[in-house]
């Protein structure tokens, strides 16, 4: 570890926003920090600075935090490189720095110029950006929410691992000639699990057929296939060496199921202080307990860091992007953001699309008829972002306000269809459209009415 003094002096071309700042370049086993300070209201910028070059062990983090505290900077700036910044962030919080003092930025926004990249030059570059105020701070929730976020992402990873193992299991069952997916909608459902375990246990012939019939008889499921159909689908090559791998995967999936139960129970206990927020989010149609739990673990209940709903949606990654040059607008694809929340809200939107009624369902259906199912899911996810922001800001539950959005949309399509017939030289009489609920009627003027209007004018 070494501390060097690096005085600099040059002409002041602007007034910095912060008189003093520390730029921090964080790595897995190295921390480089640069402290810079200047005097305001001067024609020359006299910059005094110190550098810190040390390890990122527990003691190294504590010593660096004390070094930062002694210099009393107005702002500390670091890149969000992986997970290395998190332990340093907590060390700086422990010595008295607040969330307003510590700024975490995305690395792509503060990238140093090519050919001038060293650890020290990166730290100097970050310190200059911090003094100038030319940065866009990332959203960093409080410590308790950051820990919940870590638990939730671990749970999410376990679920994805289970899905991946199920896909491998399905392929290997097909490889030995077992077509379980043709009679079971889920090969890890209760009935399917019992039947496959009977098969792995070595039963075959009439003994297997009787065992399958007994399992189906005592189950409460809605299996459509008969015992004979299940038996024929499960007849496989029992001498194959692949059965060893199938047994290993089944044991692995059982172990992950136990881990998922334990992880979910722990998440439920740890998120108890946010139970009211979870209940508020569940008032939104299509958002159940697990989804609301994931939103709270990623966000917490304080959105004061987001000045507008637009910035909130952009942080999640569901705001339309801007790509315009020379007056021409190019792709408006969504911005990159929090991938966990992004996936979660798209899944909720897809679920709302499968509902049969409701205001949000009609919005999804209108988007679906205009731009297709997948884009409709993303568009409705953006709508959910706006609703979530309003609920968490105002602390009020969601209230369903029905508007005939789908009726108006389809009536407009009918009017355009009649106009389209007229444009290609086809005749169409006036059409009367009646609302079965209210009894109100609307007349769509066809080609004959249009012709009569032209005759009157002539």
Describe the structure.
The strands form three sheets. Strands 1, 2, 3, 4, 5, 6 and 7 form a seven-stranded mixed beta sheet that branches. Strands 8-9 form a two-stranded antiparallel ribbon. Strands 10-11 form a two-stranded antiparallel sheet. It is an alpha+beta fold. It has 16 helices and eleven strands. Residues 447-458 have low confidence and may be disordered. Helices cover 52% and strands 12% of the residues.
Task: Note the topology.
Blueprint lengths: L1 E4 L2 E4 L8 E7 L4 E7 L6 E11 L3 H14 L3 E5 L4 H11 L7 E4 L13 H14 L10 H33 L14 H11 L4 H13 L9 H8 L8 H28 L4 H7 L7 H11 L9 H8 L7 E2 L2 E2 L9 H15 L5 H13 L1 H22 L10 H19 L7 E4 L6 E4 L2 H11 L1
Parallel strand pairs: 3-6, 6-7
Antiparallel strand pairs: 1-5, 2-5, 3-4, 4-5, 8-9, 10-11
Helix pairs in contact: 1-2, 4-8, 4-10, 5-6, 6-7, 9-10, 10-12, 11-14, 12-14, 13-14, 13-15
Comma- or semicolon-separated keywords:
single chain; alpha+beta; 11 strands; disordered C terminus
In brief:
The protein is of the alpha+beta class and 458 residues long.
Assembly state (oligomeric): single chain
Shape annotation: globular
Give me the secondary-structure category: alpha+beta
The average pLDDT value, as a whole number, equals 83
């Amino acid at each position: 570890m070494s501390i060097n003094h690096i005085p600099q002096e040059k002409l002041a071309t602007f007034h910095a926003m912060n008189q003093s700042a520390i730029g921090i370049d964080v790595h897995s086993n190295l921390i480089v920090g640069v402290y810079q300070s200047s005097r305001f209201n001067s024609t020359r910028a006299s910059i005094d600075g110190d550098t810190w070059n040390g390890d990122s062990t527990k003691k190294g983090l504590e010593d660096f935090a004390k070094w930062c505290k002694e210099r009393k900077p107005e702002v500390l700036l670091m890149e969000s490189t992986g997970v290395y910044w998190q332990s340093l962030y907590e060390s700086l919080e422990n010595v008295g720095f607040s969330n307003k003092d510590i700024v975490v930025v995305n690395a792509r926004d503060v990238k140093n110029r090519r050919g001038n990249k060293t650890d020290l030059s990166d730290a100097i570059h970050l310190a200059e950006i911090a003094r100038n105020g030319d940065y866009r701070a990332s959203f960093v929730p409080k410590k308790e929410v950051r820990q919940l976020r870590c638990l939730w992402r671990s749970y999410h990873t376990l679920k994805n691992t289970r899905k991946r193992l199920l896909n491998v299991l399905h392929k290997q069952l097909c490889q030995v000639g077992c077509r379980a997916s043709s009679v079971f909608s889920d090969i890890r459902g209760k009935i399917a699990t019992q039947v496959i375990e009977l098969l792995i246990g070595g039963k075959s012939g009439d003994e297997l057929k009787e065992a399958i019939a007994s399992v189906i008889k005592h189950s409460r499921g809605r299996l459509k296939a008969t015992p004979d159909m299940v038996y024929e689908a499960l007849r496989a090559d029992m001498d194959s060496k692949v059965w060893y791998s199938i047994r290993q995967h089944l044991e692995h999936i059982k172990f992950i199921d136990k881990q998922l139960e334990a992880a979910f129970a722990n998440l439920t206990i740890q998120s108890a202080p946010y139970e009211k927020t979870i209940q508020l989010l569940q008032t939104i149609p299509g958002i159940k307990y697990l989804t609301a739990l994931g939103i709270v673990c990623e966000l917490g209940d304080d959105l004061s860091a987001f000045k507008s709903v637009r910035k909130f949606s952009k942080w999640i990654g569901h705001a339309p992007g801007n790509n315009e040059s020379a007056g021409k607008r190019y792709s408006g694809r969504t911005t990159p953001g929090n991938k966990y929340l992004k996936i979660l809200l798209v899944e909720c939107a897809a679920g709302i699309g499968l509902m049969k009624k409701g205001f949000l369902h009609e919005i999804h259906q209108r988007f679906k008829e205009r731009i297709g199912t997948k884009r409709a899911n993303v568009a409705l996810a953006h709508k959910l972002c706006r609703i979530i922001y309003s609920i968490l800001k105002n602390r009020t539950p969601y209230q369903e306000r029905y508007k005939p959005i789908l009726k108006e949309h389809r009536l407009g399509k009918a009017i355009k269809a009649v106009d389209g017939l007229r444009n290609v030289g086809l005749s169409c009489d006036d059409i009367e459209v009646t609302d079965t609920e209210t009894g109100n009627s609307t007349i769509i003027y066809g080609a004959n009415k249009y012709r009569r209007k032209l005759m009157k004018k002539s």
